[in-house]
Amino acid sequence: MEKKYVRETRCFKISRVFPTDVNNHETLFGGKLMSYIDDIASISATKLCRVTAVTASTDSVDFLQPIRPTDSVSLESFVTWTGKSSIEVFVKVIREDLRSGERKIAATSFLTFVALDEQNKTILVPRIIPETEEEKKLHETAEHRTEMRKHRREESKKFADYLVTQYPWE
């Protein structure tokens, strides 16, 4: 089985926060940040397998610090773990006050992608090799997140059986 280093999947994105990017609290709109997160995570996943990688789940987006128009927002993503065809990607969001230079972790997120071939069939993905302490810690804790993800998906499928698809006006 092919192997790749985490560093081969690492991606960065830095953006300025403009007035059109903020909500009524004068902080970065959460949906905009979630879009940035999914975008950069998909690039990391694709760099691992070099085929189409589709979002299977967003496990979490934990908003830890507000991001304001005086800040820049930096995202760093990389693959932390791989299954047979699944790829876990971690995204770290850092806000930097552009006046003081102070940086803080503003958000973290875990997403799962599935690698697909040209016929939209799942394919095997390379194993991932962590090197830094941060990468190793995320890799070591991935099995627990994978189990929680499987359980949550089973519960979501059961829950979906109770949901209606009829619109209220029908």
Automatic annotation (TrEMBL):
Annotated HotDog ACOT-type domain residues: 7-119
Spans traversing the lipid bilayer: none
PANTHER family: ACYL COENZYME A THIOESTER HYDROLASE, CYTOSOLIC ACYL COENZYME A THIOESTER HYDROLASE
Pfam families attached to this UniProt entry: 4HBT (PF03061)
Protein name stated in the entry: Acyl-CoA thioesterase
Keyword hit for Nucleotidyltransferase: no
Annotated keywords: Hydrolase
InterPro entries assigned: Cytosol_ACT, HOTDOG_ACOT, HotDog_dom_sf, Thioestr_dom
SUPFAM superfamilies assigned to the protein according to its UniProt record, in alphabetical order: Thioesterase/thiol ester dehydrase-isomerase
Signal peptide boundaries: none
Family: Belongs to the acyl coenzyme A hydrolase family.
Gene3D superfamilies from the UniProt entry: Hotdog Thioesterase
